Amino acid sequence: MTYIGIDVSKDTFVVAYSPDKNSKTKTFKNTTRGIHEFIRTISKDEHHCVMEATGNYSALLVYLLSEAGITTSLENPLKVKNFARAMLSTVKTDEIDARLIALYGEKMQPAPYKLRSDAILTLKQKRTVIRQLKKQLIATKNLKGSMEALPFFDAKCRKSVEKTIAFLEKQVKDLEEDLASLAKSEYKKQMDLLTSVKGIGITLAAALIMATGGFTYFDNAKQLTRHLGLSPTYQQSGTSVNFKGHINRNGDSSLRSQLYIAACSSLRCNAECRAFLTVCGLRASLGKSLLLPWLTNSSDRLLPLSFRRNPMSMVIFLQRSNSCISPRCTGIDKI
Length: 335
Prior knowledge:
single chain, alpha/beta, Nucleotidyltransferase, domain 5, 3 domains, two-stranded antiparallel sheet, 48% helix, globular
């Protein structure tokens, strides 16, 4: 198997057919036509394409390569960056990056990327647009508030701002309804299971489904917590370094914030969560820095879709005491 390194940008992508320093590279346009031109130069039986995850810029390339049956790996840019450091790379160009990615694929042999379903892609698009509209809505409301503090507020300006606020609110509401409807129709069983847990609403349930592909992307709960950036960090070297730190924070920060709010809501509304907090010897007033949600359910029963009636457990992660408390030690395996 020959690994091909691809460095993707907005308008073009550079292809390295070999990791050798003197090997030639070729640049293609990052369009449907350019991608099909590239596909005609490789074979699905002999080549394995490797590229960094660059958001929307690499989405079309990954989609068309997968549709053509070509093995493709979409890697975390941090992995490639650290690999470049290990290789003592000092020069950075698109051609050198493409060769480096090809070398990374040859040495690390990354796993093939599983193309997301159309439903997941649609849900993610709706979520992205909703987030941007909400940011615009907040900015417009803040603008209105600041203008009202002036000696006088021009009637036409006020009318324009109020119309914009009403329009954005309507768009957000419509898209949120569409998102909830699509999530319920495509992932009804998972949505019913998640929303059965006190503290988890439709928004968080849909976000978890998008992050896990309907709880199919991961084999166990530990992989999921690591992906979300909720696993603890620990550094030890000799006798001078012994640091048990905070969570790694490598995942989706927005989803972690939603999980935190769900944990706080569960502590107010879910009697089992309150009982678990009491067993842990914590106080509800400890604050956000000491309280984080954890996805687990007594070992690996959460993932994949074989999880029980309540697939979520809110586990307390105590940063200051540097301890991670598992439901096993308390006998509580379902919250």
